[in-house]
Amino acid sequence: MRRFGILMMLAASLLLNGCGYNTLQAGDEQVKANWSEVVNQYQRRADLVPNLVNTVKGYAAHEKEVLTQVAEARSKAGAIQVTPAMLNDPAALARFQEAQGQLSGALSRLIAVSENYPQLKADAGFRDLQAQLEGTENRIAVARNRYIKSVQDYNVTVRSFPTNLVAKMFGHDVKPNFSVENEKAISTPPAVNFDPAPKPQPGK
Q: FRET label pair with 166: which of 6, 26, 134, 201, CA 20 to 30 Å apart?
């Protein structure tokens, strides 16, 4: 009887493996790992914001509106509780994406303000923070792309036969992804030009 039970377990294991059960599990874990990296890079950016705001404030304290927008956007992004359940909740992922997009926009406006303050642009601390921010934005783009690809791969597995049968049996469903229409705006690092503006030519 015991031998029969062992044989049944082996048969079930081979059946599940052949039907893609292990592939589903591996894909799910890859999605979670890539999501963790996305969150990690967004947190890295959020950690840079206070120092960046304070540095700009030291040279341009009267740019209150822009400084306030950045602080509020960071606060809203940080207020969203990031949990594994978010990966299966399209509305929650959309709120997270929107909040991070608002912070990206606010940071772009803050960096643009520096163009009006030569002393701020020349400040070594500001230049270092700006370089860190650009590097972080690039890492965010890479992490997001990896996450998007892993979700795509997972969703293909969930929808493909015969793994779709196993997916339904064990409650696996397609996962929401970052929306395509906002991808370019959110993943593009803030553009900063420290070169002096060209002087207008006579007659133009």
A: 6
Residues listed for the chain: 204
Contact call for residues 170 and 91 (beta carbons, < 8 A): no
Torsion angles phi and psi, residue 80, rounded to 5:
-80, 120
pTM of the model: 0.78
Residue-wise pLDDT for 45-69, tens only, equals 999 999 999 999 999 999 999 999 9
SS (H, E, C) 97-159: HHHHHHHHHHHHHHHHHHHHCHHHHHCHHHHHHHHHHHHHHHHHHHHHHHHHHHHHHHHHHHH
> In 3D, which of 172, 171, 125 has the Cα closest to residue 133?
125
- Give residue-wise pLDDT tens across range 6-48: 434 443 444 445 568 889 999 999 999 999 999 999 999 999 9
Total number of domains constituting the chain: 1
Q: In whole angstroms, what is the distance from residue 109 CA to residue 177 CA?
A: 27
Of 43, 56, 179, the closest CA to residue 111 belongs to 56
Residue type, 175: K
Domain assignment present for residue 204? The answer is no
Categorize the per-residue pLDDT at 84 as very low, low, confident or very high, splitting at 50, 70 and 90: confident
CATH number at residue 92: 1.20.1440.20
